[in-house]
Amino acid sequence: MIRFILTAALLLSGTPAMSAPAPQVIAHRGASGERPEHTASAYRLAVEQGADFIEPDLVMTRDGQFVVRHENEIGGTTDVADRPEFAARRTAKIIDGQQLTGWFTEDFTLAELKTLRARERLPLLRPTNAAHDGQDPILTFDEVVAIARAESARTGRVIGVAPELKHPSYFAGLGLPMEDALVEALQRHDLTGADAAILIQCFEIGALQRLKARVDAPLLQLMSVSGGPADRPDLTYAAMSRPEGLRAVAAYADAVGVETGLILPRDDMARSLPATSLVADAHAAGLRVVVWTFRAENLFLPLERRHGDAPGDHGDLTGYLKAFYALGVDAVFSDFPGTAVAAR
Q1: Are strands 66-68 and 57-60 parallel, antiparallel or unpaired?
Q2: Best label site of 26, 247, 254, 311, fewest CB within 10 Å?
Q3: Quick one: pLDDT band at residue 136, thresholds 50, 70, 90?
């Protein structure tokens, strides 16, 4: 536990970047570049590769339980479409202003979801991952915490958990308040303290502000290149990433989790442009900087880091990571945590 407390305190404190430890590696949905995301297989592989944190995205069931899926629409990440008993549950919904058609976790009980099996979300891009389809069940948040603790005991180093609350305003509108369920879970697992092996993320602002009043656990405000928080239509992430916006975030969060393009933008040809001042600005505001998401495939890399023309071929992820490490970022999310660990 000592190792995690020391590194987490530095990662999430206001100390200057030069005194911080080596950047932390957060396994984005596990080692999701090599196994179907959000599965026990992906999480255990990530730990084996040296990840400091494993990340579960949290959505809710009809009976108010957390399950771990990238989105509450699960048609592309499970075998639900092949299950005739659930065919009638296919429907269309509007989630944060976007219309989606499929199967949604809030229309299932936990027991029903536990009968499903995970599938690779990007089978055309990651066909080798699809070979593992059907092997893993959907996990609960409790089960991910249990994996982290079992792997901590096995490896002798504390593995943190970085849960992301997905669409909390939407779920609150269904009578499924995510913050209440999360605080209950954090208390149950003794993860409410400032030195807890946890890092709570959200794209919305209100959920983090309300959690700030209830727990001391580290909080991370997510930001993307475009758009803004679903619960604050008056704000954009671009404005939040400027110095005055970062100072406002620092009133309730310990860190910002920013898309790569907010630090190294790209031109119209997808080539990297010079770095912005975001890292320095965030550190000046007392915030740590976590960057998402580092993937090896050409499709996700800037033009100068690609190898060949095929979208699924792997480019120079190592070089891209090193460019961000050199800018003083405090942590990275990666689908390939082994590469991120080796690069640092």
Answers
A1: antiparallel
A2: 311
A3: very high
